[in-house]
Design goal:
Blueprint lengths: L2 H29 L9 H7 L1 H7 L1 H27 L5 H15 L2 H10 L5 H27 L11 H11 L1 H12 L4 H16 L3 H11 L2
Helix pairs in contact: 1-4, 1-5, 2-3, 4-6, 4-10, 5-7, 6-7, 7-8, 7-9, 7-10, 9-10
């Protein structure tokens, strides 16, 4: 089989996983907006539209942070499958576990929107960031399985570079756990940490980009 034919076959092997995953990410990110509702006319006439909008600030904040978390997870999922060239049953299961985590994000987001600035806001933020912590573990599990001994990577992949990226990804669960702990100090500080982590993980990682470029040259 020629190199072009081999590459085409490999792309087809992971293409269905990516297509299905993209659909799940799209649905999850769309569901977030359902909790952000336009104020009723009666509410605006009673207290003023500006006042009602300010009261719903937690809804907007939870939407923004959750939106960017899912967006960043989708971007990194895309980067991951630029490197993964084959699939097997275990990868399908691990990818499904990651998608399970993503589809559940609207629930903790709605929880924060409802309970922020309320007596139980710390519990809501703990659930919220704990779920992000779990998703980070799911993502790492899929990366580690795919990259272990270049199981699902090309034989020409730079394994030293893969191990370097693995060490970087390991910091994700730890950082989200720190965001969880920050809920005890101040809920808004915890939310800010989650947002900043999304910004941090969306920035192109030079090592990941180098690995992607190497794969694309094959």
């Amino acid at each position: 089989m020629s190199s072009d034919s081999q590459r085409e076959a490999q792309e087809k092997e992971t293409g269905r996983i990516e297509a299905f995953s993209d659909g799940v990410f799209a649905i999850a990110i769309t569901l977030l907006i359902l909790d952000v509702k336009v104020p009723l006319l009666e509410e605006a006439e009673k207290a003023g539209l500006w006042t009602v909008l300010l009261e719903r600030a937690p809804n907007f904040l939870a939407f923004v942070v959750s939106f960017f978390f899912i967006l960043v997870m989708w971007i990194n999922h895309h980067r991951l499958f630029t490197v993964i060239r084959r699939s097997d049953n275990n990868l399908l299961l691990l990818n499904g576990l990651l998608l399970f985590g993503v589809t559940f994000v609207p629930f903790p987001a709605a929880l924060v929107a409802e309970y922020l600035n309320q007596p139980d806001q710390i519990v809501a933020l703990m659930v919220y960031n704990f779920w992000f912590f779990l998703i980070a573990i799911f993502f790492n599990a899929m990366w580690w399985y795919a990259s272990s001994q270049k199981r699902l990577f090309s034989a020409k992949t730079d394994y030293a570079l893969v191990k370097h990226i693995s060490r970087q990804y390991m910091g994700g669960p730890f950082l989200y756990f720190v965001a969880l702990i920050l809920a005890f100090i101040h809920p808004y500080l915890s939310l800010l940490a989650s947002f900043l982590l999304a910004v941090y993980f969306v920035i192109p990682n030079p090592s990941v980009q180098q690995l992607m470029d190497t794969q694309n040259e094959e």
